[in-house]
Amino acid sequence: MADQVTGEHPTSPRTRTVETGYLARVEGEGGMHIRVVDGAVEQVRLTIFEPPRLFEAFLRGRSFTEAPDLTARICGICPVAYQSAATMAMEAICRVEVGARLRELRRLLYCGEWIASHALHVYLLHAPDFLGLPSVVEIARDHPEVVDRALRMKKIGNELMQVVGGRAIHPVNVRVGGFFRTPTRPELEALLPELEWGLDAARQTVRWAASLDVPRFEQDYEFVALDDGDRYPIDRGDRVRSSRGLDIPVAEFSDHVVEEHVEHANALHATLRERGPYLVGPLARYALAGDLLSEAARAAAEEVGLPRTVRNPFRSIVVRAVELVEAFHEALRIVHAYERPSSPAVECVPRAGTGHGVSEAPRGLIYHRYRIDGTGRILDATIVPPTAQNQPQIERDLADLVTAYLDLPHDELTLRCEQAIRNYDPCISCATHTLDVTVDRVERD
Amino acid sequence: MAGLPKLAVWKFSSCDGCQLSLLHCEDELLPLLGRIEIAYFPEATRTELDGPYDVSLVEGSVTTPEEAERIEAVRDRSEVLVAIGACATTGGIQALRNSADVDELARVVYAHPEYLDTLETSSPISAHVEVDHEIQGCPISRGQLLDTLLAILTGRRPNLPQSSVCMECKMLGTPCLMVTSGIGCLGPVTQAGCGALCPSYDRGCFGCYGPKELPNTAALAGRWSELGIPADAVARAFRTFTGNAPAFREESDRHG
């Protein structure tokens, strides 16, 4: 009840405000404001004071070949997601299909990004919440072996990106049509011992993540993820599917998703037309495509008793760990089977048209659409990143969480709300700003 | 950990990639933590210690009135301030707005530009406060970041290169792409630090480390023209992640 609240700075006897300042351990800066009146949640806002960087505007007039490098700069944590979506959109316009070997190499690069990003999130950004610690630094004091494992896994992901993409942050080797230079077999084979170690470390990560205490909290999500036929969706997909029957070709994505500019956020809010908030990311991929996981990943999930659909967002840390197993397993499979493509890229001749590109960023589906003219000049661009799609669902989680846990001491409730935001591994960094986490509680007679 | 120098990491308008470079120092991270105390680094920790700070790393450019005020406060509380990355040292990719009408750009992306509070230009940190060291690059190199931190801790000058990417190609033995294949390359005018990455991937340098000291951009642009590269492509090549650096901006403007 509200009178049990232990707020530090009551502005009136019936008002409680707690501020934690800045939402830590997310990419970018945002704020949270929750107002509770007489025990009922009246307002929830995930505020994003992101200084607009206006990418979609200054892409206009640039060459279609520049989109992968330019859009990579939206996010330093998932540049490959941007590069992949941009590349595939442009290839669709040019009516070019890259061959299976180049596609496998793209998937390998993407596995590197999943490994680096998931290892970062699971251990460095999310785990401290479950352990009641401020950061990985404190985890390292008591459990150095856990942090060693985390950093080594992350490093393998980065090394994979370095070999295939040139570097881990903003890779240089990706181009429309393929790559500038494809790696040799020995270059990739040199990664095998660490990838083998990483697969085992990922299995340990699943066990470790499953041992963490999670709050009791279930949500009835509409999950949305890419459909890549018989493969677990990572680098591409032909259709977008949801757990409630949405099943559309990628080209129709923007007909079904409404982007709205709300006053409290400089990121556009996305909802499904006439359906409302939805969830993209590990929980969605696992729910919709879990059957397509490798035997290794499925066995790791079964060993810890992970249900086939996870509706508790706090358990996303376990699903991310299962996806780490998948990414290591896929990377090993691709490296073992690797045959160097005969040419590093397929030639792409521009023609006037519109193209769509989608992929599964570590934190969820990302969509790009471009229109270019016959000379290859970009006329307009639309980019829908995962966090814009998850934002309305995050707000819904926060409202339900606060309602369910209103009796918690104020600081604990605030922390749990922060943790609920970090469940999504939000990437506000294309965005950003001062994050104020504020919980107001007002008592009325 | 009392007594260790205090490190703060600040974010302005950016992609987070340069501060992520610090977390990407996987082998050095834990040893580094024995030499320095993370006092403020929200991407990594909820801990917030009050200033003053011995070292502040500043990522990102200034694009809002709030950021213009905040950078002053950061400077006031910092003994040594290091601007990291192309955004912090040149204004970054978002400085592409500087030659356009920002309101019009905002209308392209946002339904309600009136909700936004943004400046006409994206400017580097040095346009607002005194900067002690600049590490160039989009993204920065981990090696240069670590060297700079160690230099500050030990009281020496950071070992940041003054030479061009060409020098790194020569040291690696990478054949010159412009000479052997006629590929446009910004290596001759771009500051070293990436390890001549792109040429080693059969790609011309695209200038993500920004201009080196006294770059002869006009001569290079002339050579590009001789290779048959159209003027608008030359203009765009100088107008990307560090296009607001004066040398690159002026060269770009000469070509349209």
Structure description:
The complex is a heterodimer of chains A (445) and B (256). Chain A is of the alpha+beta class and 445 residues long. Chain A is built from 14 helices and 14 strands. Chain A folds into 2 domains: 76 residues, no CATH class; 337 residues, Orthogonal Bundle (Cytochrome-c3 Hydrogenase, chain B). In chain A, a hairpin with a 4-residue loop joins strand 7 and strand 8. The N terminus of chain A is likely disordered. Chain B has 256 residues and is of the alpha/beta class. The model of chain B has no long low-confidence stretch (mean pLDDT 92). The longest helix of chain B is centred in the middle third of the chain and has 13 residues. Chains A and B meet through helix 1, helix 4, helix 5 and helix 6 of A and helix 1, helix 2, helix 5 and helix 9 of B.
End-to-end CA span of chain B: 56 Å
What is the approximate shape of chain B?
globular
Radius of gyration of chain A: 22 Å
- Give the proportion of residues in helices of chain A: 40-55%
Mean pLDDT of chain B: 92
**Quick one: biggest sheet of chain B?**
5 strands, parallel
Task: Count the domains of chain B.
Answer: 2
Question: By CATH's scheme, which homologous superfamily of the largest domain in chain A applies?
Answer: Cytochrome-c3 Hydrogenase, chain B
As for the number of domains of chain A, it is 2
Record the strand order, biggest sheet of chain B: 2-1-3-4-5
Low-confidence stretches of chain A: 1-20, 430-439
Structure annotation, total helices of chain A = 14
